[in-house]
What we know:
Elements: H1 5-19, H2 26-38, H3 43-51, H4 64-79, H5 86-98, H6 106-118, H7 123-129
Amino acid sequence: MDISEELKAHFLRLYSMAFTDDNFHHLELKMLYDFANERGIPKEALDALLLNPSTVETSIPQSINEKITYLYQLSQMIWADGEVDDNERNTLKKYIKLFGFDDKNIDDLSEYLLNVVQKNIPLNEVLNDL
């Protein structure tokens, strides 16, 4: 399967987020592979991507729905081990800024995403609310 550069970059961001708190939890790895499976990406393709990250060009999602989807999944990765630390929170804010959101909205958006994920509010509801 051919994976877009944007999606490859997203999976590398998710993988990176899993290491942000210096505690790579097995549920984070499971979540990463579940996200890949949901998008029809075979385990072998994700393995190859994670083993060769330098071949991926940094790519930023263009649509607001993709941006929120990716940030929501990053928030899910943060919560995978049941806790949020300052490094994870700051990394999420860094990605929000990277995705082009206005500086004055970064703190509110990061807290909103962490809260909806903690409350298990489905992504489609989040997208409909925004």
